[in-house]
C-alpha cells in the first residue's frame, strides 16, 4: 500500500531506494469516517496525508459563517494545511472527510528533516508545491475574479470530472463561491 505514495512522489521527482526506505518508516495507515476531520481550523498541523480511498474537502469558514471550499482531494492525492505546516501556526483551513476514507499520514517534522539527507526528496517537494500550490492556485484566483459562475462551473466539471458525482451540490456551490440556488439555475440552463 505504501508503494502508492512512493509512486505518486516518483511522478514529481524520482526518489532513491534509500530515500524510499526512510519514507516508509514514517508512513502510518489509518481510516476515517464520513464527516470526521483530519484537521480543524485553528490547530497547528503536524502531518501530511496521502488519500488511499475517499474524498475530502479543504475549506475555510468566513466571518459571516459561510463555508468556502478551496479544493477537493480524492484518491492518490496529498493533502495538508501547507502554509500552517511551514509556519507552524494555527491553520485557517479544515480538512473534512466527505466519505468514509483510508489514508496514509506522515509526520511533517520528520518528513522535512529528511530533506537535508535526501536531495531527491527536497526536489519532490519543490516540484509538488510549484505544480499544486503555485500554478494551480494562480489559475484558480484568476478564475474567481474574471469568470462567470457558469464558466467556473464548466471548469469545475472539467477539473473534477472523475469525482463530480461523489460531491453534493451544496459543496460544489461552496467551491464555486455561489449559493446552491444559483447553482441549480446554472444546471437548469445547461439541461442537467
List segments where confidence is low: pLDDT < 50 over at least 5 consecutive residues: none
Second CATH tier, the architecture = Sandwich
Number of DSSP strand runs: 8
Quick one: CATH class? Mainly Beta
Q: Considering DSSP H and I runs of 4 or more, what fraction of the residues is helical? A: 40-55%
| Radius of gyration over all CA atoms, rounded | 18 Å
Our count of helices gives 8
Order of helices and strands: HHEEEEEEHEEHHHHH
The portion of residues forming beta strands comes to: 15-25%
Order of strands side by side in the largest beta sheet?
A: 1-8-3-6
Question: What fold name goes in the CATH topology slot?
Answer: Jelly Rolls
Mean pLDDT: 93
Count of spatially separate domains? 1
Straight-line N-to-C gap: 38 Å
Characterize the main sheet. 4 strands, antiparallel
Oligomer: single chain
Tell me the structural class: alpha+beta
Domain Cyclic nucleotide-binding: 11-132
Pfam family, one: cNMP_binding
Protein name: Crp/Fnr family transcriptional regulator
Organism: Chitinophaga nivalis
3D structure, described in words:
A 4-stranded antiparallel sheet has the order 1-8-3-6. The protein has a 4-stranded antiparallel sheet with strand order 2-7-4-5. Helix 4 (108-117) crosses helix 5 and helix 7 crosses helix 8 (180-189). It has 192 residues and is of the alpha+beta class. 48% of the residues lie in helices and 21% in strands. It has a single domain, classed as Sandwich (Jelly Rolls), CATH 2.60.120. The protein has 8 helices and 8 strands; from the N terminus they run ααββββββαββααααα. The mean pLDDT is 93.
Amino acid at each position: 500500500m505504501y508503494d502508492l505514495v512512493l509512486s505518486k512522489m516518483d511522478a514529481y521527482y524520482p526518489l532513491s531506494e534509500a530515500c524510499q526506505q526512510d519514507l516508509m518508516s514514517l508512513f502510518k495507515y489509518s481510516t476515517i469516517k464520513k464527516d470526521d476531520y483530519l484537521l480543524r481550523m485553528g490547530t497547528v498541523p503536524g502531518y501530511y496525508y496521502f488519500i488511499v480511498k475517499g474524498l475530502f474537502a479543504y475549506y475555510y469558514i468566513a466571518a459571516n459563517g459561510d463555508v468556502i471550499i478551496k479544493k477537493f482531494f480524492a484518491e492518490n492525492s496529498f493533502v495538508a494545511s501547507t502554509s500552517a505546516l511551514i509556519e507552524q501556526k494555527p491553520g485557517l483551513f479544515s480538512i473534512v472527510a466527505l466519505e468514509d476514507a483510508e489514508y496514509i499520514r506522515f509526520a511533517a517534522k520528520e518528513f522535512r528533516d529528511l530533506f537535508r539527507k535526501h536531495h531527491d526528496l527536497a526536489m519532490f517537494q519543490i516540484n509538488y508545491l510549484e505544480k499544486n500550490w503555485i500554478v494551480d492556485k494562480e489559475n484558480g484566483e484568476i478564475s474567481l475574479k474574471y469568470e462567470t459562475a457558469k464558466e467556473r462551473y464548466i471548469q469545475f466539471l472539467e477539473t473534477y470530472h472523475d469525482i463530480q458525482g461523489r460531491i453534493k451540490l451544496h459543496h460544489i456551490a461552496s467551491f464555486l463561491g455561489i449559493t446552491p440556488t444559483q447553482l441549480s439555475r446554472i444546471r437548469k440552463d445547461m439541461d442537467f
